[in-house]
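Board notes (copied after class):
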Amino acid sequence: MTADPIGAHDPRDRFDPAEILARLLDERERAAFLDEYRRATTTAAHDVWRYAALQRLLREWAARAEALAGQVDGRDLAGRRADVLAGRGPRRGLDEILAARP
């Protein structure tokens, strides 16, 4: 038996270091990411319990890279901001947002 995801599926892993590097536009940001990533992988290789810190680092850099690229999950941030300021688009309350968090 197999299962397919419901809805649109992006085959890219946004936490893959290569994907993060592809989104970083500034050479300084690339160097900083590589430095932090190398330190975190070396530490995680020697102390397995630090693997969670490596995952957290990748999540943080993925968010930073998306913000620098001006997109989050394929959405244009500037366009989304303009929609919010104009009162267009879906609205969600803070309770709903917090309840949806993992």
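Comment from the instructor: The CA atoms of residues 93 and 99 lie 10 Å apart. The chain is about 60% helix and 5% strand.
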